[in-house]
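Take a record.
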Amino acid sequence: MRNWDDLRVFLATARAESLTGAGRDLRMDPATVGRRVARLEEGLGATLFAKSPQGYALTEAGQKLMTHAEAAEAALRAGTGEASGAGEGLSGTIRIGAPDGCANYLLPQVCARIAEAHPALDIQILALPRVVNLSRREADLAIAVSRPKTDRLRAEALSEYRLSLAASDDWIARHGAPTSPADLKGARMIGYIPDMIFDAELDYLSALGVAHVPLASNSISVQLNLARAGAGLAVVHDFALPFAPELRRVLPGEVALTRTFWLVSHAGPRDARLDRVARLLRDGMRAELARLEAAVA
């Protein structure tokens, strides 16, 4: 092993899967990144990347080094986190990744309260209609709808949340409310684009026996707004309903889904500052979910 700076270049290249992406992240010329990677490979006597027109993919040796490099990175983060987290106020930048429903209807309120209590802390919310890739350092913390299946990540159950079938008063006035789940098979449904469902936990309509989705989006927020516009029936988060006064729950006694949010972080040595943010996020999410779902109930 040479030094931490070499490992930093290696990690950036592995996560970006290209010299250009690594150079952008490191604010370094791609050619310099390439020379640094080549120097590291020469020093270790191993090929770390398989280079192709598609990019840089880790070899078996690269995968092994990745494990050790991430452990070294986590240890360094833990040390600096303990130093910066010793005082009462949090500072620095924290990026939180989340699916767009959570990012739109829960995190703004939660993060606003955290920011108010810790004005030196910069908070970034990364809203994505897919799984946030912590291994590539897209975020420091992520909220997921299912527990990750890898020992490279740490996961904690945040809270259960509920989903209901809903439609606008306008749509119900024009089409009538369904009287049983069997009526949904012929109704105009709003849901996810079938081949873009990134987690089985989001396949709500299949669980209701609905095969055809005439109005679809990869964004739960777009689905909610389609329902608000009177386009059809949608499965929506109960915590989002207070933001959509046009919507009314349909078949509430017969169609009720429950899912779980997970708080995901990097495995390895603990980072005191990140742990404090995680605790604030966990407590804030649970309180905000309870408040919004109580308003609906």
About this structure: The chain has three domains: 4-83, 90-158+260-296, 160-258.
